[in-house]
């Protein structure tokens, strides 16, 4: 019985580590969750608490993810708003990431409304 319990514990630990590794690899979702956390904290506890919040990713890493989305469209984005040439799916991802970057930088409409109207 003891061996079975240890095996189950070992297997569940490996599964948890692999899920954490997959979650850690996705910079896009980390940026989104950081932005959502900043907005939620500003809404609940105010802008001072939101600014004190530790974030998982840097804004530069999120900007690199934004550039990856834009890079799929190459020269079509030169001189125009990149969202005007994107597919609806990419446009939604791009806009959500853009809002998260603004929130991580403590600016943008969702963050400012959360901080002001709390």
**What's the story with the biggest beta sheet?**
none
The low-pLDDT segments are: none
Q: What's the number of extended β-strand segments?
A: 0
The fraction of residues in strands falls at under 5%
Class computed from helices, strands and strand pairing: mainly alpha
Mean pLDDT: 84
Which oligomeric state applies? single chain
Number of helices: 6
General form:
globular
Count of structural domains: 1
Signal peptide: 1-23
Keywords: Signal
Brief account:
Keywords: Signal. This protein has one domain (about 25-115).
Describe the structure.
By secondary structure, the protein is mainly α. The protein has one domain. The protein contains 6 helices and no strands. The protein has helices at 2-25, 27-45, 47-52, 59-71, 88-104, 109-116. Helix 2 (27-45) packs across helix 5. The model has no long low-confidence stretch (mean pLDDT 84).
Name some characteristics of this structure.
single chain; 118 residues; mainly alpha; 6 helices; globular; signal
Topology:
Layout: H1 2-25, H2 27-45, H3 47-52, H4 59-71, H5 88-104, H6 109-116
Helix pairs in contact: 2-5, 2-6, 4-5
